[in-house]
Predict the 3D structure of the following.
Amino acid sequence: MRYLITGGAGFIGSHLAEALIARGDQVRILDDFSTGSRANLAGLGDHPGLTVVTGSVVDAALAERAMADVDHVVHLAAAVGVRKIMQERVAGIRTNLVGSETILAAAAERRLPLFFASTSEVYGKSTRPAFAEDDDSVIGSSSLHRWSYACAKLMDEFLALAWFHEQQLPVTIARFFNVTGPRQSPDYGMVLPRFCRAALAGTPLEVHGSGRQSRCFLHVADAVAAILALLDTPAAVGQVVNIGSDEEVTIGDLAGKVVAAAGSTSLIQPIPYATAFPEGGFEDMQRRLPDTRKLERLTGWKRQHDLARTIRDSLTWSR
Ligand code: NAD
């Protein structure tokens, strides 16, 4: 199969590209290298199965050219990371809304199956214990800019499902919950790589808020296994599917685990949200736990990596 991966030079995309090429598929990457990098693709060298197109997903003509001769589109390109979303507001919305519309329209023109990367952020502030795919979204005010990411991804989901229902475009939507591990950049607010960098440098690990908010971190290898399984599952077409880990940890405890695993002397330093995000417009949610029974039922997927392994691999990479 020939795959187009938008955002393929990024964290998840580069691991997916490697996995597809390892199983004999061909990969074309469309990426503007805003948060992705050539270094992420270094493991593939100049493999004949890989081609790279540099440019933006908002460029309709480029998107059409990038889709020539491919069998399947995996749309991962997005403006990600709380810090980036808060600091580059218009550009973030443009990529996440216009970029996705452009990619969907180009795929629809060619009737190409499309996998879309959505996010657990679409559940918003909902206080349900574990989010299932049909649960409500509880989104904050538009004066709190962090919600723009969730809203853009939610509109992308609506649009993808509309293409599926009106034109039978084969789309599959995955909602990722805190995927992490080797190659995730610490520069855009992602917590585990940020903690690893600080622990290894002996500088304080900054925990935003009380540190009692919890998350579930999924090793990128498990996320890629889930993507591959969904790509190969016809019953996943037209579906929204959570991808995440059920191992929950508070951010305060995560900081302690990283310090211990690194053998570091770093301090753990609580930082009020208002200090961490002086531009304002931020609020956090206490828990974010996925219900992954649908993914398991559809594909038989099971998580293979626990949090301790995920932290170890992230530290090794940071080193
Ligand atoms: P990433 O930043 O490493 O990857 C995004 C890639 O998209 C980068 O290579 C970047 O250069 C590229 N990109 C950004 N804007 C672009 C544009 N306008 N045109 C072309 N390329 C562009 O982040 P990631 O964690 O690998 O995220 C991949 C996808 O998964 C994103 O859609 C993200 O919203 C989604 N997601 C990730 C997580 C997670 O925990 N990592 C959670 C939820 C959803």
In short: The first strand starts at residue 2 and ends at 6. DSSP finds eleven helices and 13 strands in the chain.
